[in-house]
Amino acid sequence: MTDSLEKYEALYEEKHQAHWRRLQTSLEQDDLNTFREEFLDMHTYDQANFFIEQEEDMRQRIYGYLSPAEFAEIIESMEFEDTIGYFTEMNPQYSAAILSELPADDTADILNLLEKEEVMSFLTAMESESAAEVKSLLNYEEKTAGSIMTTEFIAIYNIHTVKQVMQLLKEEAPDAETIYYLYVIDEAKTLVGVISIRDLIIADEDTVIKEIMSEKVVAVSVAKDQEEIAQLFRDYDFLAVPVVDFQNRLLGIITVDDILDVMEEEASEDYSLLAGVSEDERHTDTAFQAAKKRLPWLIILLFLGLITASLIRQFEDTLDQVAILAIFIPLIAGMAGNTGTQSLAIAVRGLASGEFQKQGKLKLVLRELGTGMITGSVSGVVIAIVIFIWQQNLVLGLLVGVSIMASLIVATLAGSFIPMLMDRLNIDPAVASGPFITTLNDIISILIYFSMATSFMSYLG
């Protein structure tokens, strides 16, 4: 069975590569008809990958082969941050036509990455109707429901019959983002209900919509944070959710594909912050641009490191008397930093996924405290035994062991409490990055270690 599967996969890959080679050959030979036949037969994701691999002269040829509508589908399969360079190398009229073909929310996302002057030039060149929709989305604050919603949806009135709605669907469905659910409004365009396509199909054509719609509709405010909306999709398994203003008037919808992008964006942002890297750093940045974005964090950590150095200097007399204490500084600081980072990761993940709302923050802090006590005690006992056997000094072993135990407990608490504090202050908890927590725990662990060493100096001698 396994051999047959591997053989099938090998044949599929060989067929895929042969198709790829034919496509590349037709492009290089400027064979328009063959290229279009082979290229448009591919999935848009594969089309995007093929396009990305090309040099600029070949990309220019592809622009000439594809209509704006066809190329817009390829853009939707790419990371929008990676498309900016392509838009700048295209003919301005061609790029504006592509933006007009894209869903309004996708166009708004792309334009948000550009300078203000470039945005205005694109909006001026776009079709007036598309430009107006995009402008309305650009007015909303970034990372809110308004900035990620689409205005390409179908709303139906509660006084319409099923027959009227079915006719409306035939006319408007091709331009809608999704029609799995239809949102029902009244004459004031207030959201009053929702109905699924299945319920619509099985209903009698003379039935009035308000008689079969569900009034239990979950909507989000236009100002709601995108991360909270992602949690809503996860909890309710939604395919789409309506967006309303403060008077409950329907403004747009957010679809699950938009939320998948949000989840990826938020995860990438949290990962970058946890690593102490600017969230807007891209793989396309030059070495100078990358260094410019990383330096602020590194400079901050450099000054925090100076605090650690000055702390050690305060205990210079202790080190002079018992020089062997210096050997264990990296061990204690490293253990505290690693433990704090582990706790930080759990806390940030819990805040991002909404687990804390379900279990309670106090319960999770107490759990982390218990975890710190157990890991600290076990690590402390192990290192105390090792040092006793190694150095034949029971007091030194106990000192390092107790220092590690206390440091790990404090580091675990800091790693879980600091992100919660930041969240309470409406600051992204991921800002409590791994390097920041590590350096902070270095300071705390060294303070604990040398304070205890100074107190028990007579026994160490």
Automatic annotation (TrEMBL):
Keyword line: CBS domain, Cell membrane, Magnesium, Membrane, Metal-binding, Transmembrane, Transmembrane helix, Transport
Transmembrane segments: 295-312, 324-348, 369-390, 396-418, 430-452
One Pfam family matching this protein: MgtE_N
Subcellular location per the Swiss-Prot or TrEMBL entry: Cell membrane; Membrane
Span of domain CBS: 149-211, 213-269
Mode of membrane association: Multi-pass membrane protein
Subunit structure: Homodimer.
Job of this protein: Acts as a magnesium transporter.
Protein's UniProt name: Magnesium transporter MgtE
Gene that produces this protein: mgtE
